[in-house]
Amino acid sequence: MKKKSSAKKTKKVPVILITNDDSLTAPGIRHLIEAVKDLGRVVVVAPDKPQSGMGHAITIGFPLRLHKVHLMDGVESWSCSGTPVDCVKLAVDKILHQKPDICLSGINHGANHSINVIYSGTMSAAIEASIENIPSIGFSLMDYSLEADFTAAKKYARLIVEQVLSKKADKHLCLNVNIPKGDVELIKGVKVSRQAYAKYEEDFEERKDPSGKKYYWLTGIFQNLEKSKDTDVWALENNFVSVVPVQYDLTNHLLKTKLEKDYTWKS
Amino acid sequence: MKKKSSAKKTKKVPVILITNDDSLTAPGIRHLIEAVKDLGRVVVVAPDKPQSGMGHAITIGFPLRLHKVHLMDGVESWSCSGTPVDCVKLAVDKILHQKPDICLSGINHGANHSINVIYSGTMSAAIEASIENIPSIGFSLMDYSLEADFTAAKKYARLIVEQVLSKKADKHLCLNVNIPKGDVELIKGVKVSRQAYAKYEEDFEERKDPSGKKYYWLTGIFQNLEKSKDTDVWALENNFVSVVPVQYDLTNHLLKTKLEKDYTWKS
Asked: Which of A77, A116, A256, B200 would bridge with A71, disulfide CB 3.0–4.6 Å?
């Protein structure tokens, strides 16, 4: 009888999978672990080298490695030789042997608002989890510096994770959270937003190697192409934390209707 | 006077940028060039090595190289050391010095229907072009073999490119076209579809290297999780060419409304 009652009282501890794209050695992932580690059983599986800009890449042509590492006392941590998406797949299949209750990615050093979501390794890990019915959140701080102040990022990461864990989350929930740079006191709150149409005006820098052959570095100037107040770029420019719910269904339904009506698909 | 009238008669020749993710040496890209080369001025910029599964990856940590190569008589061709997305960016900025009228990617050796669109290097090149206001089409043949029969793929690629070039295309038009394997005569036509919710049940194969250390190969079993007749998977299973219009706005608008209503974002 006693045993039964004690079992009843035991609250299920959520399993929290944490990954990122800046690798295990980036300060951002430590800050994320610290922000949430008392909310459940945290397991870390993150890339062994920086994977920024990897989009939704998976490793097909090479085998993958996993190594157990010590990152922080009391937190099971693994280093993975693959991409952020590989980390999520391997964590579920070979480390957890189950789906975690939530998957968190980040905290990224640098913004992932607007079109950045599509190039982002941080967000690709979160999107991969959501495809697998694991609610997920990617966090990015708008500060590239290794010495960035993560106070605000940690505060809002915890707040948002608590909210999602406290509800029966949508099974494909995936949030793209960006936190403005600067003093936590200056942040006005959280704003649920949509992805702005903003992009980079590319400009490859051309150089010559010691033997005179050309090579190119990708550079670009960020351009925000809309001023609407419901976008993530607006929220961040106005010192809100932006939360954009993200989906993996890429179908353009409006264009689908138009194609069915206006195009002739016969030879 | 004569000069003016001759200028009037000159029809603008469309610039057609062609890329892929299987690299310049794959038969698929040659078939695509052959299918459309008399429809405009074709310029090829494709990866120098296979880039399957690269998702929307871009190269940040390394510089990129471009080399002029001979692929086919009368077709300007370049080999690029980067990802399919890098190829599109470099082609516009450093080779064409203008936006092409259309960007074609493929013909991929293997399917890119349903969730594959998100991992696909072929489709990432097409999506990148559409972000840059360049109408684009990715083509994939459901046959991995190097000796695959591209007759049907070539026929429908040409038909679809002609259709898109003949209209004032939507500025962000991006089509994900998949062609069933098999005899061209058996194909029933083109079906505009939506992305099916289908995914892979992952199963990493565990092996040991000669020194006894574990490594993993990504494998997986494809699972179609819906039977609806408006999906790309249904179209292909029923011998239609599937055409899915694709977008790069990942905002989940339904979930956005729910988040605004049901969640409290305050500490």
From this structure: A77
For residue B143, what are the CA distances in angstroms to A198, B18, B237? 37, 20, 14
pTM for the whole structure: 0.93
Give the residue among B238, B104, B119 at the shortest CA–CA distance from B180: B238
What is the Cα–Cα distance from A76 to B35, expressed in whole angstroms? 54
Question: Residue B175 in contact with residue B167, Cβ under 8 Å?
Answer: no
Q: How far apart are CA B151 and CA A191, in angstroms?
A: 52
Write the ipTM.
Answer: 0.91
Residue of A139, A135, A85, A91 whose CA lies nearest to A113: A139
Cis before residue B107, ω within 30 degrees of 0?
yes
Residue B38 has φ and ψ, to the nearest 5°, of: -90, 5
> A245–B260: do the CB atoms touch at under 8 Å?
no
State which fold the A13-195+228-262 domain adopts. Answer: Stationary-phase Survival Protein Sure Homolog; Chain: A, (3.40.1210)
For chain B, the structural domain boundaries read 12-196+228-262
The partner residue sitting opposite B195, judged by closest CB among A58, A241, A249, is A249
Cα–Cα dist B255/A167, whole Å = 14
C-beta atoms of A259 and B192 within 8 A: yes
pLDDT digits over A69-80, tens only?
999 999 999 999
The per-residue pLDDT of chain A, averaged, comes to: 92
Between A86, A213, A245, which is nearest B251 by CB? A245
Tokens linked to A209: 């190697």
HSE of B57, CA atoms in CB hemisphere, 13 A:
29
Q: Domain B12-196+228-262 carries which CATH code?
A: 3.40.1210.10
The helix (H) or strand (E) run that includes residue B70 is: none
* Pairing of the two strands A102-109 and A15-19: parallel
